[in-house]
Amino acid sequence: CSPLPPLSLVIVSYLVNIMDKQQINYIRLMILVCALFTTPIANAFDYTDRISEIKEFGHWQVVEIAGPGQIGYRLATTSIIQPNIHIAFDFLPSKNCLSAPAIMIIKYDSYIESLDDGLVILTYKFPKEKKQTTEVVKTEMSKGDSFAFLLFQKLTTEKFYRAGDKGKLAIWVPGVYYFAPSDNMYFSLDGFMSAYNEAKKLCTDNMTR
Fold this sequence. Notes:
By secondary structure, the protein is an alpha+beta fold. The protein is built from five helices and ten strands, in the order H-H-H-E-E-E-E-E-E-E-E-H-E-E-H. 25% of the residues lie in helices and 33% in strands. The chain is globular and about 45 Å long.
């Protein structure tokens, strides 16, 4: 899969004005699908693995990744403003369908050494929360690759589920300019609960087969 190049905020704004919703969703989905093949869940499978099914629930997708003798499910969404930034949760029958905390996937133009086994401070807030949360997040990026992975410890599916389906999760990186064209990254909660329930059900069903 050849990932589409990341778009700057100016280009994205221009696209929003000239493209219909279906075209924009297609571009977002293609970037997301390409990103899936380079993330930890994909690396757990061999090279014959493939994405066998994608279901959409509002702004969220449930992706089935099937391989020889194993299967996994990814619950993912794309940033409202930046189509090269995603948040994902993985569900594996081999892990009792218990999702690890969120992974943020960012597609850059090129490799960034500081994100290769690094740390960054991220702050985020759900619409129903009175206080924001700040945590130190581990970063992973392989030399020669353009995808960075930010591994949260506190940003869990439980927090998303409690927040419900309305509003947006805001994440920002004070003082670090290369993470996004703007200081804030926004992720819609629309469809999360239905997508979570579907991913959990599909994973649990495969535990009993």
